[in-house]
Amino acid sequence: MQAVAPLPQRFLRSRWLPRAGIGATLLILAGVITLGAWQFRQKTRGQIIGRDAGILHGVAQMVALTHAKDGELGGELEQLPDQLAVALQLSELNQLNGVIATRLFDTNGQFRAALPANVAPAVLNEGELKQLRLLKPVSRFRARAELRELFLPETTALTESSRTAPLLELLIPLSRHQRPELAGVIAFSMDGHSIAAEFADLDRNLLVEAATVFVAGGGIILAALAWAFRRLQRTTQLLVERTGRLVRANQQLALSAKTSAVGAITAHLVHGLSSPLSGLQDFVASRAKEEQPEPEWRDVLSSTRQMQALIGEIVRVLGEEQGADRYELTLGELLELLAAKARTAAVTANVIFHTHLKAEGSLANRDANLVLLILDNLTRNAVQATPAGREVAVQVVPRADGVEFVVSDGGAGVPKEVQATLFKPCRSTKKGGHGIGLAISHELARHMGATLELVRSSVEGSVFALRLPHALLCHNSLLDS
User: Fold this and answer.
1) Most exposed: 12, 190, 265, 334, by fewest CB within 10 Å?
2) How far apart are CA 381 and CA 365, in angstroms?
3) Spans of all domains in the chain
């Protein structure tokens, strides 16, 4: 469950992701509009180019039919004179479109004649002939045609500015009405400036319309995606918050489940130890009242009093864990409680003990009790490890992600062979120790969502750090200036 939270958090913090999504969508929209405009442009251009060819083909059929009825073609459209007559009449009908040259071809695509006479011969290719034999006209448009290729060398004078020009070439098939087969081909080479102007108008209009569609559609898509991403971010934020609460609830349930058995055992042990320990304390206290009590009896009395105080502390913590009381402790109050506990042991061991508070905030009483148990264990270990006359310090400092309790001593450091298993239950290096104090403290910190670690260890002393995240604080810590 803990691994689920970072993914939506990273997704939420990635500001580039909505921008990238919107940018990719706009690029796709631009690509679709461009492709559609290009296909429409090609289709419209084909229609413009083939428009005159279709008209002339229909006119040619009408002219051939009219001449055949009137007997002007002599009944033989396949003959060159008859084809020239049709070509001349079509040229006269189409003179407003600017016919530059006219050629006549036979059914095999071979050049037969031209109007005017200085027009250069040419040959039709197989692709054009295939379509012409189906009695379909063919249109070709060249935006920059070499005009000198239309005429025989040295038969016309072309200026530098007129050597290239837009040219429209129309191939019109000729056939008899009674026999639908190719009888000849008339090729018109026409001035293509009007076609070029139409193409320019078409491109300009398509550009304006495509830009309008892109701006309007892009604006709608941008607004819709921005709204969707905002809703998605809000939903993700809500999911992150609920996941965090669920994680904390699971941690609390796990801690409660794991500590319930320990709490029951602890309560049983405390109940079993309290009465014998009370009797032992009364017995030791009576012996210590003698006029000259032995030093060992004074040590035993001190130890029994510490044990009695420890049992009282355990009873208090268990009572608050099972009770309904809820209150907060500030970090300063927590540090004062720790100092009150540690100073007695420090004075007894002739160790200098001091605290430093550099952060502000508060903890719930249940969390504060566990933190106090961990810090009490750390300070007791620090006092026991520190020689007389040296210092033990506890500092509370702010962090970017919470606060940190730093416990430092002036002892000889933790042996390297012990550091690897420092937070695991093992035989202690201290006389009479069982090696479970740090293990219990580490486990309590982990289940709280905090961390406990050995920061530094040398011959000059050891430093332990208990780091609490912001989630455990009732109010975020404030940095001191």
Assistant:
1) 265
2) 24
3) 12-154+161-211, 328-481
Residue partners of 281: CB distance under 8 A and separation at least 6: 301, 304, 305, 308
Dihedral sign (CA 211, 215, 220, 225): positive
| Gap between the Cα atoms of 373 and 21, Å rounded | 51
Quote the CA–CA distance of 296 and 30 in Å, as a whole number. Answer: 92
First-residue to last-residue Cα distance in the chain: 38
Residues in the chain where the model's pLDDT stays below 70:
1-15, 64-85, 87-97, 155-162, 177-178, 252, 254-325, 425-436, 475-481
Confidence at residue 432, expressed as pLDDT on a 0 to 100 scale = 45
C-beta atoms surrounding 46 within 10 Å: 12
305 φ, ψ (degrees, to nearest 5): -65, -40
Q: Which superfamily does 328-481 belong to?
A: Histidine kinase-like ATPase, C-terminal domain (3.30.565.10)
Q: Which of 42, 62, 50 is nearest to 170 (CA)?
A: 50
If one looks up domain 12-154+161-211 in CATH, what number appears?
Answer: 3.30.450.20
Q: Which residues contact 266 (CB under 8 A, 6 or more apart)?
A: 314, 318
